[in-house]
Write the structure tokens for this entry.
Amino acid sequence: MHLPRSSKLTPNLQWREAAGSTNLELIQLVQAEPLPDFTVLATANQQAGRGRSGRVWETAPNTALAISVLLRPRLDSQEDMSKLGWLPLLGGLAMSQTVQELLGEGHETGVKWPNDVLVAGQKICGVLSELVPLNGGGDASRFGSSVGVVIGAGINLSQTREQLPVETATSLTLAGAELPFSLEERFDLVLSGYLERLSYWYQRFTDARLSAVVSGLRQAVIDNCVTLGQPVRAILPGDTEQLGKAVTIDDSGRLVLEADGVVWPVAAGDIVHLRHN
Ligand code: BT5
């Protein structure tokens, strides 16, 4: 696969004709050999895509991209570990901006917290981030931190309605994007668009020593989040629920709900929008 634009944006592009899960393959690769920050493993034929909480991500061959990126930011203190929680939100923001650019004006695109990219309320991309402990020693000293985060994004490109696994899903072509006819050009356009924005925000975030506030990441995530202002149901780990209005995203990346004058920060969970707009 000839991907000239994308190749320029990463020190290591690993394209696969087919893969089980790109996240899993990248995790296994970095645990076996040292890999630089911003290594990318991608395919248009992912056969065992993973979703969150053991769910599955399903795509027909050549109709979607599965993209996993290894990030290994420098951590100066234990406290920096908690800031890694911003990386999945950064991935969702980067993909949302890519989708906006590909669709052009007039589409309601944004992120449902924490990182589902929606177009007119329908899911076009899901993000799964996984923390990877890396071997110390030579690997850590060559490439910086001893912890890596793999950000996996699945983006639907050209599925027809029948090819999508659920009614709440959409693809770029269904939403009206005109993509290049050639598969190589199509994949390179979408992959490079995403890598460009991911690298822009990652650079800003690491330049600001992982401060989401100083880098402007928090504000950009807020501006791009379609959950804010909505009544929602949060399904929390352990299957408890919280109803409330989503009011903001705090400095730790948590979604803040308000119910009866009480605020509830939500760090992890599934959000259901109770009103569709
Ligand atoms: C996600 O999980 O949305 C994360 C999906 C991450 C996929 C990427 S692809 C590259 C990398 N490698 C991997 O193995 N995974 C990552 P979650 O929020 O749990 O949503 C999963 C749910 O989305 C499923 O239960 C379906 O309802 C729905 N779904 C499955 N396939 C979909 C698709 N192609 N488009 C839209 N929705 C889909």
